[in-house]
């Protein structure tokens, strides 16, 4: 009896250790069931990024906007139904989130090579984000897999839980904290703004009215972002928007952050020193970005028998 209860105890402890360590996601989830899944995602992402470099940033952002709303469950991909309004309509996503057609292409190619729908849309978002970063010169990491797809979405939660570009540092810290992410995760992941573009309407107040901005930079940005109108005109989030590099952080140190929320990370507060470190240390930024991406990817996944594997990422089965 002694050895039997020892055996049971050891078994329970082993399981606890296993669950505790990666929220039950693991990198090998599709190895047996569809070994071609990951190479296929990589190929389609590579094609999309070669066609338009911006798409890499757009795909990275989709995963972020998915994970911050009820966990990484592909809720952002669902179109509106009679039961809920799509997160695509929420303020941070409307006329802004993009890359949905690439995700649909990946899904159909992956289901074809696998012979049946075994790969979730939520995992596709996580892998496509990683492959995008790699395609644009950033670090790689092992994506933990086994997320399942939600059967619902929340426009309200998307409005409330995705951070706004008008936030100051305390609100940004709070927004990440609500997701179980710390100050270091906030700074490292904000480095995602080494990629892609922003619309003029989201940084207009900053370039016309703020003081913690380099005046040459403000003048330069005003040229394509007039005081009235032009709200959807694009400007790069750093001056090398198609390369994953340290320019975003270098810009913050010289008061050339584009968004109010970007410059908030280097404005005399507790994150200044980390921004400075990342601005001159690509290795440190890359390493921290990769581990924070894994952490973000672990937010509240649906696993086991919860949720479903969608047949079409846009709708519930
Ligand atoms: C810290 C809080 C954050 C705020 C307030 C914020 C806000 C924004 C805003 C306002 C835009 C421009 C959207 C538009 O003009 O349509 C944007 C773009 C972008 N964001 Fe963030 N973001 C944050 C964090 C992140 C994180 C954590 C990532 C990824 C790890 C990320 C990746 C991107 C990318 C790649 C783009 C460019 C997308 C494109 O060109 O299509 N952002 N963000
Ligand atoms: C989303 O943008 C469109 C314009 O493209 C607009 O007509 C619509 O009202 C917006 N939706 C929300 C919820 O703001």
UniProtKB/TrEMBL annotation:
**Residues that bind substrate:** 163
Disulphide-bonded residues: 34-114, 67-72, 121-313, 200-225
Which cofactors go with this protein? Ca(2+); heme b
Where does the chain bind Ca(2+) 1? 66, 69, 71, 73, 75, 87
Name the residues annotated as catalytic in the UniProt entry: 65
For the site Transition state stabilizer, which positions are given? 61
Transmembrane stretches in the record are: 6-29
* Presence of the UniProt keyword Glycosyltransferase in the record: no
According to its UniProt entry, the protein's GO biological process terms are: hydrogen peroxide catabolic process; response to oxidative stress
Q: Which residues bind heme b?
A: 193
The record's GO molecular-function terms, alphabetically, read: heme binding; lactoperoxidase activity; metal ion binding
Q: Which CDD domains match?
A: secretory_peroxidase (cd00693)
Q: Which residues does the record give as Ca(2+) 2 binding sites?
A: 194, 238, 240, 245
Read off the SUPFAM superfamilies from this record: Heme-dependent peroxidases
- The answer to whether UniProt assigns keyword Glycoprotein to this entry is yes
Cofactor binding, note field: Binds 2 calcium ions per subunit.
Q: One Gene Ontology cellular component annotation? A: extracellular region
Enumerate the InterPro entries for this protein: Haem_peroxidase, Haem_peroxidase_sf, Peroxidase_pln, Peroxidases_AS, Peroxidases_heam-ligand_BS, Secretory_peroxidase
- Residue ranges constituting the Plant heme peroxidase family profile domain according to the UniProt record: 24-317
User: What's in the keyword line of the UniProt record?
Assistant: Calcium, Disulfide bond, Glycoprotein, Heme, Hydrogen peroxide, Iron, Membrane, Metal-binding, Oxidoreductase, Peroxidase, Secreted, Transmembrane, Transmembrane helix
EC number(s): the record gives 1.11.1.7
Q: What job does the chain carry out?
A: Removal of H(2)O(2), oxidation of toxic reductants, biosynthesis and degradation of lignin, suberization, auxin catabolism, response to environmental stresses such as wounding, pathogen attack and oxidative stress.
Q: Which family does it belong to?
A: Belongs to the peroxidase family. Ascorbate peroxidase subfamily.
- Protein name (database record): Peroxidase
